[in-house]
Design brief:
The chain is α/β, with parallel strands linked by helices. The chain has one domain. It is built from five helices and five strands; from the N terminus they run βααβαβββαα. A five-stranded mixed sheet has the order 1-2-5-4-3. The radius of gyration is 15 Å and the shape is globular. The chain starts with 6 loop residues before the first strand and ends in a 5-residue tail after the last helix. About 20% of the residues are buried. The mean pLDDT is about 95.
Length: about 140
């Protein structure tokens, strides 16, 4: 079985350089979020599965994505979350900024890395859930 999971998370190289443990945290979160959305019945219709890609960026990379031309209109969920929803293809690309203050906080307290990523990504997926009339996780 080599099927892609409906939710994937991509981390910018800049973030991985700052926080080497982030890759391990994201791998665990990816599995957890895919399981939680499965149990929340996000994938009831196998012919109509929503594919969500979450991109974690520093503020500079996030700003570049905001100013880039995309084929679909942007949905601004928050100052640090912007999504591009192509519902014809059932694809959502969502960019999540790790703000400068969050970077400074993680620098001072490395143990906050996992919890902060968990909260940010759950919040983002729940915003998508509300937008798509899905059960929140």
């Amino acid at each position: 079985m080599n099927d892609e999971l409906p939710i994937s998370i991509h981390v910018s190289q800049e973030l991985l350089t700052l926080f080497p443990k982030l890759n391990s945290v994201i791998n665990k979160l990816s599995a957890q979020l895919n399981f939680q959305t499965l149990t929340a019945a996000w994938y009831g219709d196998e012919d109509n599965i929503l594919t969500i890609t979450l991109y974690l960026e520093l503020q500079a990379g996030f700003a570049i994505q905001q100013n880039k031309e995309h084929t679909v209109a942007a949905t601004d969920f928050a100052d640090d979350v912007i999504c591009y929803m192509d519902m014809d293809r059932q694809v959502i690309d969502c960019y999540v900024a790790i703000t400068d203050s969050e970077v400074a906080l993680i620098d001072q307290h490395q143990q906050l890395l996992s919890g902060l990523m968990d909260k940010k990504l759950h919040k983002t997926l729940n915003l998508i859930a509300v937008e798509q009339s899905l059960t929140e996780i």
